[in-house]
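Chapter review: from sequence to fold.
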Amino acid sequence: MSTALVIGAGPGLSASLARALKQRGHSIVLASRDTSSLSDLAQEIGATLIDCNARNPDDMERLFTMLDEQQDDLDVAIYNPSARTQGPIATLDPVDVENTLMVSAYGAFLMAHHAAKRMLSRNQGAMFFTGATAGVKGFANSAPFAMGKFALRGLCQSLARELHPKGIHIGHVVIDGIIGSPANPESASGDEDFDNMLNPDAIARTYMHLLDQHRSAWSWEIEIRPWVESF
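The C-alpha cell string follows.
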C-alpha cells in the first residue's frame, strides 16, 4: 500500500484531505506538533499519528525515518502548516516573524528535501503545498505572512522546474478566502451551505483533481476561492 503524508494536520482541510486520500486506497500518516486532538480522525481512517514540529530539522528527519519503517512507498506528501503574525512593521516582534518564516517556508523546504529523496528513486510521486493569496499579493500590516507565503511559492515554482521532468508532480494551491469548519457557526456540512466560505471537502476534491492530472498536462499552481470572493 502506498503512503500519503499530511503535515500540519488538523480538523479542517487536513482532515478532508486525509479522508479523500484514504478513499483512494492510501495508507495515511498525519503529522502535527500535537496530534492529541486527532485521535478520532485517526481511528476513523486508520491513520498513523506522529508528533512533529515542521520547522525543526530533527523532527522532520525523524518523521521520514518513521515513514521508511512502514516499508510503503511515499506517493503523496502535503504541506499544510502556516503561521501568521500581523501588525505595523515597527511594532512586530522579530521572534514571531522568524517563526512565521520558519513554519511557512523552511518547514516546506524540509518536507520537499526528505520527500524528494524517497520519490526520486522511483521517478514518481506528488508534493502539494497549501498557499494563500498573501503569496501573490502582500497586504498592509501582514508583511511576515506575505514573506513566508512568497517564499513558499518560490520554492514550489523552483521544485516544479526541477522535479516535473523527473516524474514528481509539484502543486501549489492558492487558497483565497476563509475555509469553513464545524467550529464556525456560519459553516455547514453541505456543499450548498458554504456560499461565502471554502468548503474543506470541496478543496480536498480539487487536490484530488490535481493529483489525477496526466503528466502531459500538469499544473504546478492553481487558485481556488468562493464564487463570491472578490480578487
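Two observations follow directly from the output. The longest helix spans residues 94-120. Residues 23 and 45 are 9 Å apart (CA to CA).
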